[in-house]
Task: structure prediction
Amino acid sequence: MLFCFGLYGVLAKKNAIAVLMSLELMLNAVNINLVAFNHFLYNQTYDFNGVKHAILTGHVSALFVIVVAAAEVAVGLALVITIYRNRLSTDIDELDWLKW
Result:
């Protein structure tokens, strides 16, 4: 449901910052699913030299998604600020200067 809200925001919004926020909402929904699926599908431990270790594949994947999301926010926000300085608008419909 959280992913669907984010998808609706990406498809329906015209403000670039609102689209970036909706994209972050979608990435957070993916993180919740990765951790939940890891908990319910791989909820066992394995013995390695007498020490119990849990399988944390979903958690590690969620950590990578968080790192990618942070990089996406940094680059995306820098682009939005640059476009706003040049065009004085963050409306996505007005970003057509690269069209043929």
Remarks:
- DSSP finds three helices and two strands in the chain.
- The beta strands are 45-48, 51-54.
- Residues 57-87 form the longest helix (31 residues).
